Amino acid sequence: MRILRSIVSDQRDPAVLASYRDPPCKASEANIQQALTGHYRNEHLLALAQSLSVYNTYQELVMACNQHIEASLVRLAAARTVPEAPLPVPRHRKLNPSAQAFDIRGVLYRVVGTDLTQLSGIGSYLALKLIDECGLDMTRWPAAKHFTSWLALSPCNKISGGKVLSSQEPSGGTAAPAGGHPEPHLHRDCIECLLSPTI
User: Fold this and answer.
1) 112: domain range?
2) What CA–CA distance (Å, rounded) separates 177 from 32?
3) Strands (E), the chain
4) Alpha carbon distance 82, 99 (integer Å)
5) Does 80 fall in a domain?
6) Is 75 exposed, middle or buried (0-12, 13-18, 19+ CB in 10 A)?
7) 143-196: per-residue pLDDT in tens?
8) What is the tally of structural domains in the chain?
9) How many CB atoms sit inside 10 A of residue 192's CB?
10) 95, part of any domain
11) Contact, 126 vs 182, CB < 8 A?
12) Which of 27, 76, 99, 177 qualifies as a cystine partner to 129, CB 3.0-4.6 A?
């Protein structure tokens, strides 16, 4: 991103631009320098500048949305009883690139009363989406099987003569978070934990 912003700011030296590469980038600085050597056409520079402007605008909107989500969660947490046990050590160390810029895990722990990210396959971002879609009242699903079916995780087994002819997950017709499925590791034990009366 720094390279693109520098190009829009009239920097054309390939050596200078290549020096801005991110350390994890697999391409070497020499390869990037070679790729950045050429002619910069005005219409392409205009398109790049406008694309960056749109990107900046969306980033500002996302930040404003995150602030609104954070304020809503803090307001919900203030109305809940503070859990007696401290927040457990994070199970997932890897950060989700889609994660919000604030401490979702800590606020959700105060809202829910338990750390959903301790379940296999659930990070803070997915936990937030689950609470957003399901709410805190899990009594709408009498058992884990009902909740699994609602999430469209129950396989559609076609059985004839005692033999399974085909088995696949149903497509569509689900209110699962973000219009899709939770992580594949959201197995029965995790679902039963979500349906626990402590939530």
Assistant:
1) 66-135
2) 39
3) 156-160, 163-168
4) 24
5) yes
6) exposed
7) 888 888 887 777 777 778 877 777 665 555 555 554 444 444 444 445 455 555
8) 1
9) 14
10) yes
11) yes
12) 177
